[in-house]
Amino acid sequence: MNVRVIYQAASICLSYPDDAVLGSATLIAAALREEAPQAAASFSPLLEWWATTPASLVRTTYVDTFDMSKRHALYLSYWTDGDTRRRGPVLADLKRRYREAGLTLADTGELPDYVPLVLEFARHHPRDGAALLQEYRASMELIRLALAERGSPYAGVVAAVCDTLPGRSPADRQQAMALAAAGPPTETVGLEASDPRLLPLHPVGSR
């Protein structure tokens, strides 16, 4: 399994679906079939949806899914630190890690914990990237579960990334939340009352 191909494909697929992204679907499918056939099936629902859906609807759905609701936020530290002051040092540390790896962030306006950006880092530095993804495994799994609950074709893409990491993916939200090392944020600025990160973290079976 070529994790570089999986990370690059996922980085593209989880980015805003402009013409360049949508135009890469055939290349992505071919690369996965050749280099990561185990993951190809996980990407198929999204690639097939792209092929059968007007581009304008694909873009609207992307915005509705990832930009208009925090339930599927593609920012890893949002799921662990929320919109709290402690998130600042986390983002600064990510920038430092990129810089030490020799990568310079383009002026895209995205935060360094943006999943497509993290996956691009992982593509260039698979060992360090996998370690970073494992560090935020709970975030990735919560995004995966939230997308699956929505019935989103993007769920399979996130699942394919989770499958590159050691251990089994949690079966439900409670198990995913149990992966987190720290409790929920004490500040709730910008969080919805129903946000899953506001629930206490308990080991599985402790209730």
From TrEMBL:
Q: Which UniProt keywords are given for this protein, alphabetically ordered?
A: Nitrate assimilation
Q: Could you tell me which InterPro entries the record lists for this protein?
A: DMSO/NO3_reduct_chaperone, NO3_reductase_chaperone_NarJ, TorD-like_sf
Supply the Pfam families for this chain.
Nitrate_red_del (PF02613)
The reply to whether ATP-binding figures as a keyword in the UniProt entry is no
Region entry Disordered: which residue ranges? 181-207
Domain of life according to the entry: Bacteria
Q: What is this protein called?
A: Nitrate reductase molybdenum cofactor assembly chaperone
Q: Whose protein is this, by species?
A: Microbacterium alkaliflavum
